[in-house]
Amino acid sequence: MDKMLKLDRARSDLMRSVARGSLVAITSAGVTLSSIAPALAQDNSIEFWTQSYGDALQWNATIRDLAAEFEAETGISVQHETINWSVAFDTWLTVSRGGAAPDCADMYWLHSFSAIGGDQYGPMPINEYRDQWENLDENFFEGSLQDVTWQGDFYGIPWRGDIRSFIYRTDAFAEAGIEGPPETWDEIVDIATELTERDENGNVTRWGYAYGTATNSVSWLLPYYWQAGGDFMTEDGRTATIDNEAMRTALTFMRDLMWEHEVVDPDSMEANYDPQPGFLAGDIAMINSAEQSWGVELDRDYPQLEGQWAMSLTPEGPENRDSFSGGGYLGVLRGTDKVEQCVEWMEFLSQEDNMATLSRVSGNVSTRRDVMDSEFWNDRPWKVVVGEALEYARTSQHPAPAWSAIAAPEPGAVLYDMMYDAVVRQQDLDEVISRAQERMQAELDRSNVQ
Amino acid sequence: MERDKLIFCYVMVAPALILTVGLGIYPMLASMVMSFQLYDLLQINAVGTPFVGFENYIAVFQDPRFVQTIVNTVLFTIIAVVVSIAMGLFLSQVINANFKGRAVLRTLVFVPWFVPPVVASAIWMWLLQTERSPINHALQSMGLIDTDIRFLTDPSTFGPFSIPMMAVAAVRVWNGLPVIIIFLLAGLQSIPKGLYEAAEIDGASIMQKFWFVTLPMLRPVMSVLLALLVMNGLGQFEINYIMTRGGPQNLTNIMAVYSYQQAFMFFRFDYAAAASGVILLMTSVVCIFYVRAQSKDTLR
């Protein structure tokens, strides 16, 4: 009996001590965290997030080196974190609704995220610091500065551009005796028809043409529509302007390439479509709207293809030669108390040498004119083309917070559905466009509620 | 003593409870509340999040795409559950038998379990890519087909079914099968051998033994499995999203993907919450049936 009592007491003591131990652990953890938090807030370090570009390891090492140099100069340490592109949009959306945010970051879609964050979260205007960048307008491309301005406020420094050109297999061209890349839409049709090949069962062994390299299929439509003379909305971002002849021309061209001339893969708009393996294998002869990062990748990862591909300007449409351009910027996030440190860091990164380094490592076009004039952006024929394409580059940003929803590359989005219904499903163009116009206007109205 | 024991139990359960409440119950309730509010990120700064009653539910049910996703979700779940259980029953019997090479077969059968759904989706996307599919190449080499099968992109339908739907369902079955086999294997191994011996003495054939001994004895395991598979099937997301984004022509779109698209592509968290509310309702029905069946079994 005594033994039982002792055992019971021992068990009871054990339970008590475990319970006490757990409480002590939880309390002390809380105390430790609360004592660390103010110390962290007072330190001279900033948290900086970027997406990953090019070779991820090289990218991280580059930012680390730049941060070390910056710390040596200013005493401000930079804690860098990389966001994977696959979750980048969701991350910035969360940040814009009050989720954990860095002090400053490499961002994009300014118009949407600043509208979503309002004056509480998300991108922070830094108008009072704009003058710290001398000759901003002369040093940077005009289009890139448009991307960091929203409703008259200045939000940061553009650092990368995504310029689209035309890419083609020179070996296929040589084999068919074609001398140069197409210059017009009509030439696209002729050359693509000549280069499309099928086996005896009708299976395509080489597609003559692909609309674009990006996985964002909606981005393929933009240059065709612009080249046909269209604009997606009025300058104030309040009125949709897609129900017009330019849209009919653009969609007809895309649809005919797929179904009449049969030179484009009908699976192009599906989620699992990726033109890169096909191009590398020589199964796709030409791609319109090719990201410049393809040039970097082909140089770096596929040296065996040297001499078998080239880039050129996107062929001219009925009205002009406008090509797609996207971009990203360095900005500050609302909620930080380290605005000045962040601005110093951004100033440091936007210096010519550092911008050249970022451009070289990421493979992105620089937004600084002097960097694009440097040897790096002129030492290969495709880079010269990319430089020339800047002259025709038109920003894909539109002055409406709803634009990213309108142009989302997903079923259910206005432009995706319009393209899919018109091009893939071959529905009546007038109906499709009229429906899209109505939906797009509703989206714009939704984001313009006062 | 009893008090100490109680405190000890609470302390032990607390971490799991806190996690469940914080990461499960709270978001679920918050989402339910959101489904009755106007929660549009593009309007939220101007109009806030006013109560709108059932408007969001009405809006999603007026969207033909959502109605189709409900049908698709149910179909996907039925296909995945029926095929998985049928294959699971067969393979678990095979693995349970004594033969040379059983260990190798077991390893092979369990391999898909080690592949996360995201990776499985990427691998199968490549395997099913129309022009580069090794499956198409193999079928053509064998002379079984002339033209490539568009596994993930063929929009033609036969009734409510389509090739992309079957292809995605097959991947879901492939990825989920090992867990089912483990469940069923455990069930099979707990059946007393004496029952089979008695059946044999009575002259039962293999099929009769399976039908009158194995299946009834597996019933408790199967009911748990069925409930889990149906609930999991109704809330499936990643394989469909990664492989097809719901396409072609919404043929493989399911409710969870629809919900994700509404929230993270179109900023309509209210519609997303309403769609999630429908998923919750459907899984709750299954859950209630399951709990009631379990309670009856316990009482018996």
Notes on the structure:
The complex is a heterodimer of chains A (450) and B (300). Chain A has helices at 2-42, 56-74, 85-95, 110-117, 136-139, 142-146, 170-176, 185-195, 218-227, 245-260, 275-280, 293-301, 339-349, 352-362, 369-372, 381-389, 403-406, 414-424, 429-447, and strands spanning 45-51, 77-83, 104-107, 123-124, 149-150, 153-154, 156-169, 197-198, 204-206, 286-291, 309-312, 323-333, 365-366, 393-395. Chain A has a domain at 44-162 and 325-395: Periplasmic binding protein-like II (D-Maltodextrin-Binding Protein, domain 2, 3-Layer(aba) Sandwich), CATH 3.40.190. In chain A, 48% of the residues lie in helices and 15% in strands. By secondary structure, chain A is an alpha+beta fold. Chain B has helices at 2-34, 44-47, 55-62, 64-96, 102-114, 117-127, 134-141, 163-189, 193-201, 206-234, 238-244, 255-264, 269-299; strands at residues 157-158, 161-162. In chain B, β1 (157-158) and β2 form a beta hairpin. At the A-B interface, α1, α3 and α4 of A face α1, α2, α11 and α12 of B.
Strand order of the largest sheet of chain B: 1-2
CATH-derived architecture of the domain at 44-162 and 325-395 in chain A: 3-Layer(aba) Sandwich
What is the CATH homologous superfamily assignment of chain B?
Answer: MetI-like
Shape of chain A: globular
Q: Which sheet architecture does the biggest sheet of chain B show?
A: 2 strands, antiparallel
Q: Helix- and strand-based class of chain B?
A: mainly alpha
Q: Report the β-strand fraction of chain B as a percent range.
A: under 5%
SS element count, helices of chain A: 19
Count of DSSP strands of chain B: 2
Indicate the proportion of strand residues of chain A.
15-25%
Structural class of chain A: alpha+beta
CATH topology of chain B: MetI-like fold
Q: How many strands in all of chain A?
A: 14
Distance between the termini of chain B: 33 Å
Radius of gyration of chain B: 23 Å
Gross morphology of chain B is globular
Radius of gyration of chain A: 27 Å
